Amino acid sequence: MLVAAPRGYCAGVDRAVVAVERALELYGPPVYVRKEIVHNRHVVATLADRGAVFVDEVDDVPTGARVVFSAHGVSPVVRARAAARGLRTIDATCPLVTKVHKEALRFASEGLDILLIGHAGHEEVEGTHGEAPDHVQVVDTRTADGVDVVDQVHVRDPDKVIWISQTTLSVDETTATVQRLRERFPNLADPPSDDICYATQNRQVAVKAMAPRCDVVVVVGSANSSNSVRLVEVAREAGARAYRVDTADEVDPAWLADAATVGVTSGASVPDVLVTELLTALAAHGFATVEEVRTTTESLRFALPHELRPDPPHP
């Protein structure tokens, strides 16, 4: 059995989950969280058991209560609505998502049309789009029904257009979309730095290195986790049969029936305990020997939101 590394929690997810845990310790439950703090069912259920209350919108939070913004970020409209309700906010937005928000604001101030490559309806895309809605168009790479989304893009000035992206996309998927956009807009500008999260890229690179040696790859991650779903796609493109599970008990033994080598990885919002449980389950199916396929080592850490650092104010 091969196990990809890096895998599991990235720095932004770790920061967001710890932020909710720390808020519960400091202030006691309930602590409200807008949307899922990260896209993982196990994490959300565990925090809910400790007193976190997950809501769809800030309008669902009692006036004056404390609310955490998820790792995916929020738009200025959401921040304004929270302020209008007197909510005490804790911003757990991943700093890499915040970087993309700032890019959108800067490019809009320069009068550029911004093509946001991402998945319409994803919280991160909604937040980034909301920073400059008059300048940002979402280019959804998943659009089906024969619609060419690139052909649907319209800009005011083809010489003043730039692209940015959702941080959790497939690198290959984004590159292909940019190439197609550039066919329509030859002067399409690139953002000054890569928007796709380092952890997303690292996990995809590790899967690309591991998958060609595997008959089957099992990815631990929730269905609404964009980066986990991308890992399944990357593994399949590398030649393996690949499946996504939330937990080990979702593994179908039929997947393993004719497999000589099984690979394992996990999305950036998946805690180690779920991978450990999967390895134990696979060992019971005869895959007891574990070899790690490591392509890089991650050391990045993000500081907690300022409201949760030592000696935070207690209103």
Describe what this molecule looks like in 3D.
This protein is α/β, with parallel strands linked by helices. Helix content is 37%, strand content 17%. It has ten helices and twelve strands. The strands form three sheets. A five-stranded parallel sheet has the order 10-9-11-1-12, sandwiched between helices. Helix 7 runs parallel beside helix 8. The longest helix is centred in the first third of the chain and has 17 residues. The termini are far apart.
Helix and strand topology:
Layout: E1 2-5, H1 11-27, E2 31-34, H2 41-50, E3 52-55, E4 66-69, H3 76-84, E5 88-91, H4 95-109, E6 113-118, H5 123-131, E7 136-140, E8 161-165, H6 171-184, H7 198-210, E9 216-220, H8 226-237, E10 241-245, H9 253-256, E11 262-266, H10 272-284, E12 291-294
Parallel strand pairs: 1-11, 1-12, 2-3, 2-4, 4-5, 6-7, 6-8, 9-10, 9-11
Q: How many helices?
A: 10
Apparent shape:
globular
Helix content: 25-40%
What is the chains' assembly state?
single chain
Question: What is the mean predicted local confidence, pLDDT?
Answer: 95
Quote the distance from N terminus to C terminus.
52 Å
Give the strand tally: 12
Structural category is alpha/beta
Listing every helix as H and every strand as E from the N terminus to the C terminus, the arrangement reads EHEHEEHEHEHEEHHEHEHEHE
Rg calculated over all Cα atoms: 21 Å
Question: Major β-sheet, in short?
Answer: 5 strands, parallel
